TrEMBL record:
<dbReference type="Pfam" id="PF04314">
    <property type="entry name" value="PCuAC"/>
</dbReference>
<dbReference type="InterPro" id="IPR058248">
    <property type="entry name" value="Lxx211020-like"/>
</dbReference>
<dbReference type="Pfam" id="PF07987">
    <property type="entry name" value="DUF1775"/>
</dbReference>
<dbReference type="InterPro" id="IPR012533">
    <property type="entry name" value="YcnI-copper_dom"/>
</dbReference>
<feature type="domain" description="YncI copper-binding">
    <location>
        <begin position="24"/>
        <end position="170"/>
    </location>
</feature>
<dbReference type="InterPro" id="IPR036182">
    <property type="entry name" value="PCuAC_sf"/>
</dbReference>
<protein>
    <submittedName>
        <fullName>DUF1775 domain-containing protein</fullName>
    </submittedName>
</protein>
<dbReference type="InterPro" id="IPR021174">
    <property type="entry name" value="UCP037139"/>
</dbReference>
<feature type="signal peptide">
    <location>
        <begin position="1"/>
        <end position="21"/>
    </location>
</feature>
<dbReference type="InterPro" id="IPR038507">
    <property type="entry name" value="YcnI-like_sf"/>
</dbReference>
<keyword id="KW-0732">Signal</keyword>
<dbReference type="InterPro" id="IPR007410">
    <property type="entry name" value="LpqE-like"/>
</dbReference>
């Protein structure tokens, strides 16, 4: 069975169900480096207008090859194979066809529950950073379906769409010195340079160089909110570290104390500086100490602006200013 393979899509597939909850079908991890094996874990958050999901269909884009889906108890697994547009190397063997669509069928996922559906494949054949769309359809018996197939136009984000397609950003190392691989949509930016996301502008990013053998690093950036309502930085992710935490340092009875924060408010019309001073990022369980002149891609997760990919340059260890809020 030969299928036409799509990487970038426009909105246009019909939606059979009349109502959709605000939660979208997304991947647990939405960025990965080229020429690596990637486990795409799709999250299905709700049914079709209140009805349970009985089938999930995922179209695999060109460049996601040698796919192997993960079986699910209670669901029948169907693998549809077809021709690739290109030929790919599989440990010395040229391969030009393989799985192009995966279907989990005959299950029952109630609307009030959520579940994940996983497929593993190789991200291969990319000469530049690419956003791969995985058009996904939820079927709810004969009573309806939800189609996730839209990609944002220029200037939009996925949060502006009613039915955004789950996507994975395939990243490339920049000059061989990208530390980590969670590069995302802005891996070609000037490291630390300004990136806009809705009403927010992120700039002046930096991470301090670490000593050999160190496992904890610190850094930050500046966020300016030009909007009329507050936003909130909820979390930061980085493949170069086991986890990233938001920390604040304060003086209590002449003793410097540091505490972990659940989030940071970015006030309307204001600017917040997260630096290596009072308010900052802590990179925990760092896999390889950050060295000066390297870069560390991160994903910033905002309450309203959504997921924002950003690249932090690693600078020489030196003093940094504290946090300031300007209203």
């Amino acid at each position: 069975m030969t299928k036409t393979r799509l990487t970038f899509l426009t909105a246009g597939l019909a939606l059979s169900a009349v109502a959709i909850a605000h939660a979208h079908a997304t991947f647990e991890t939405d960025s990965a480096p080229a020429e690596t094996t990637f486990k795409a874990v799709l999250q299905i958050p709700h049914g079709c207008d209140g009805r349970p999901t009985t089938e999930v269909q995922v179209t695999l884009p060109e460049g996601f090859v040698f796919a192997k889906p993960q079986p699910k108890p209670g669901w029948e697994l169907e693998i549809i194979k077809g021709d690739y547009e290109k030929t790919y190397d599989d440990h010395g063997t040229n391969v030009s066809s393989g799985p192009v669509e995966i279907r989990w069928k005959g299950g029952n996922l109630p609307d009030e529950h959520y579940d994940t559906f996983a497929v593993r494949g190789k991200l291969s054949g990319f000469a530049k950073e690419t956003v791969l769309a995985f058009p996904t359809t939820q079927l709810c018996g004969s009573e309806g379906s939800v189609v996730w197939d839209q990609l944002p136009a220029e200037g939009q984000s996925a949060h502006d769409l009613e039915r955004p397609a789950p996507t994975v950003t395939v990243t490339l190392a920049s000059g061989g010195n990208v530390h980590g691989s969670h590069g995302g949509k802005h891996a070609d930016q000037i490291a630390g340079g300004p990136v806009n996301a809705g009403d927010l502008e992120i700039s002046a990013g930096a991470i301090k160089a670490m000593l050999p053998g160190a496992k904890v690093g610190s850094g930050g950036f500046v966020v300016k909110n030009a909007g009329s309502s507050d936003d909130r930085l909820l979390a930061v992710e980085a493949q170069a570290a086991g986890r990233v935490e938001l920390h604040e340092m304060t003086m209590e009875n002449d003793v410097m104390k540091m505490r972990k924060l659940d989030g940071v408010v970015i006030p309307a019309g204001g600017t917040v500086e997260l630096t290596s001073g009072s308010l900052h990022l802590m990179f925990m369980e760092v896999k390889k100490p950050f060295a000066e002149s390297e870069t560390v891609p991160v994903t910033l997760i905002f309450e309203k602006a959504g997921r924002v990919e950003y690249v932090l340059p690693v600078t020489a260890a030196s003093g940094a200013s504290g946090v300031h809020k300007h209203n």
